[in-house]
């Protein structure tokens, strides 16, 4: 097998059309949603945040921060799932400290961005709730 054959093999896996790329990406999101319980929980939280934003009539800037938080958490959760799948594939489901570390770090990244989302929600909604109560 020469180098040209190897390049042809790589091209078979490369998306040549925008529609095909979008289709693969959408399939990835739907797969993550179906297979990952935490992603479904984050999606429910996102819906609740949007409802709260509508109820409390948050400003445009507040919407930007809320939506940034929601999309970051969901994106990080999808990446975490992808990393977990690749690690499982590479380790053939055998315990490895490196595999554990990779999976723990990916989960840690989700935790960090979820903390950002929580702080953002608190900063935006606590004063509004406080005004309602007092």
TrEMBL record:
Main location: membrane
Cofactor info, note text: Mn(2+), Zn(2+), Cd(2+) and Co(2+) support activity to lesser extents.
EC id: 2.7.1.107, 2.7.1.66
The protein's required cofactors: Mg(2+)
Positions of transmembrane segments: 63-83, 105-126
Record keywords, A-Z: ATP-binding, Cell membrane, Kinase, Lipid biosynthesis, Lipid metabolism, Magnesium, Membrane, Metal-binding, Nucleotide-binding, Phospholipid biosynthesis, Phospholipid metabolism, Transferase, Transmembrane, Transmembrane helix
Record-level GO cellular component terms: plasma membrane
Residues annotated as the enzyme's active site: 77 (proton acceptor)
Binding-site list for substrate: 77
GO MF assignments: ATP binding; ATP-dependent diacylglycerol kinase activity; di-trans, poly-cis-undecaprenol kinase activity; metal ion binding
Enzyme class: transferase
Binding-site residues for a divalent metal cation, renumbered to this chain: 36, 84
PANTHER family: DIACYLGLYCEROL KINASE
Family under the similarity heading: Belongs to the bacterial diacylglycerol kinase family.
Name of the featured protein: Diacylglycerol kinase
Organism: Streptococcus massiliensis
């Amino acid at each position: 097998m020469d180098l040209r054959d190897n390049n042809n093999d790589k091209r078979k896996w490369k998306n040549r059309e925008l529609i095909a790329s979008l289709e693969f990406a959408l399939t990835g999101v739907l797969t993550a949603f179906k297979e990952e319980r935490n992603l479904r929980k984050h999606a429910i939280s996102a819906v609740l945040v949007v409802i709260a934003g509508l109820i409390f009539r948050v400003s445009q800037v507040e919407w930007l921060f809320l939506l940034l938080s929601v999309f970051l958490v969901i994106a990080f959760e999808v990446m975490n799932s992808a990393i977990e799948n690749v690690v499982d594939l590479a380790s053939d489901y055998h315990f490895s400290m490196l595999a554990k570390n990779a999976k723990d770090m990916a989960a840690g990244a989700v935790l960090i961005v979820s903390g950002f989302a929580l702080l953002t929600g608190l900063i935006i909604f606590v004063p509004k709730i406080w005004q309602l109560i007092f």
